[in-house]
Amino acid sequence: MRKTAVYVLAGILMFFGGSLNVHGAQLGQQDTETAQSAEIAQEEAPPIVVVLDPGHGGENLGAEYEAYTEKYMTMTVAKSMKAELEKYEGITVYLTREGDKDMTLEERVDFAKSVNADFLFCLHFNMSVKHDLFGAEVWISAFDNEYQKGYTFASAEMDMLTELGLYSRGIKTKLNDEGSDYYGILRHATENDLPAALIEHCHLDQENDKEFYNSQEKLEKFGILDATAVARYYGLKSDILGVDYSSYQNVEIPVPASPVKPDDTKPDICIIDVKDVNEENGDVTVSLSAQDYDSYMLYYSYSYDGGLTFSDLQKWEEGEDTISFTMNVPSGTLPEIVVNAYNGFDKFTESNHIHLSSLIYGEPETEEAVEASNMNAGSSAGEEELGSIEAPEEQQDNNLKEKAPKEEKEITVIYFLQVILICIAILFVLFSFAMILISARSKKKRRRRK
């Protein structure tokens, strides 16, 4: 009986053990198949398609400043950007133009649509009317998904540009009179449900930005930077570069319910207060408070002559409502301090005016002071022979006393000559008047005789 029971238990255990092994094998096979399916799906996933648009071309030169022409610069950036992006996996890159040729904005968008592009990147450089603006900015559509995707990419792009050292002018929208996107390339892209971003890398006509674009190498660096921003946006990886952005966290921007309009109003607040005046060198420290409830503060400029002239635009300290700065007022000026504070859309508000007392410092020596200084220097040279420090002062007084009569004599002679001239003039007038009277009397006598 005992042997029989043992055999029965062993059989039961073998049965269940075999079932567990079969089930485990099935699970293992399912896991392997799932992993293989994922790899196959990943391999079969269509690549991301992006189109790079080097701005301008042909007779359309774009911005021109000194030896730089925008259409050539954008092509250099585009080629560099394409070469860098092609080092990443799962992306296909096209250029709207390969050579120097004219293309309409519609043709550029049509080309992007013909290759089923997921995104259109428009590459540009900037200039301003008054040649006073500086920094980088990205323009995007104001509408729907195009705004959401455009802003998300633009955030990654602006992070890269500011890391490079450029000043951020922000991510912006602009509408035309019809309420559509102002920039044609963005307008046509939006009409075709194509996300797009217009990148203004920097301003050619500003010394603040010149160091970022003034060589072939620096333009190619822009291309690499732009490519990295795209790779971050799409979460790409590259074995060639040894980078993986699959875990990169993009900003979360909701799809807007209505068009995102730009701020077309001036800053709401702009107030100044003078904190310190250094009368020895003319430095004036000013506290500036400015806010814009609809956008952000971007620049400020200051004037010491009541607004007749202003300084160059100065960078605003990001995130601050109140900042301090020091300006220098030239000697002999009666200062009237005023400041302009600009928002992100270049609208400005003028501050209150503050009047200060005249600042006079570092005045050049008068002729009398120079002469006295020369006398002192000459006296000092003979000081050892005289053996007294009072001799130079006595000599100086004597020299001044000797000069006094001469100056008085010169003044008397001039005065005497002036008196003589005045007397002559008076006599001449009296003589002329007398001649006129005599002539008039002669005429009357003749008439009586007739």
TrEMBL record:
<keyword id="KW-1133">Transmembrane helix</keyword>
<dbReference type="Pfam" id="PF01520">
    <property type="entry name" value="Amidase_3"/>
</dbReference>
<keyword id="KW-0472">Membrane</keyword>
<feature type="transmembrane region" description="Helical">
    <location>
        <begin position="413"/>
        <end position="440"/>
    </location>
</feature>
<protein>
    <submittedName>
        <fullName>N-acetylmuramoyl-L-alanine amidase</fullName>
        <ecNumber>3.5.1.28</ecNumber>
    </submittedName>
</protein>
<feature type="domain" description="MurNAc-LAA">
    <location>
        <begin position="50"/>
        <end position="231"/>
    </location>
</feature>
<keyword id="KW-0732">Signal</keyword>
<dbReference type="InterPro" id="IPR002508">
    <property type="entry name" value="MurNAc-LAA_cat"/>
</dbReference>
<feature type="region of interest" description="Disordered">
    <location>
        <begin position="370"/>
        <end position="404"/>
    </location>
</feature>
<keyword id="KW-0378">Hydrolase</keyword>
<feature type="compositionally biased region" description="Acidic residues">
    <location>
        <begin position="382"/>
        <end position="396"/>
    </location>
</feature>
<dbReference type="InterPro" id="IPR050695">
    <property type="entry name" value="N-acetylmuramoyl_amidase_3"/>
</dbReference>
<keyword id="KW-0812">Transmembrane</keyword>
<dbReference type="GO" id="GO:0008745">
    <property type="term" value="F:N-acetylmuramoyl-L-alanine amidase activity"/>
</dbReference>
<feature type="signal peptide">
    <location>
        <begin position="1"/>
        <end position="24"/>
    </location>
</feature>
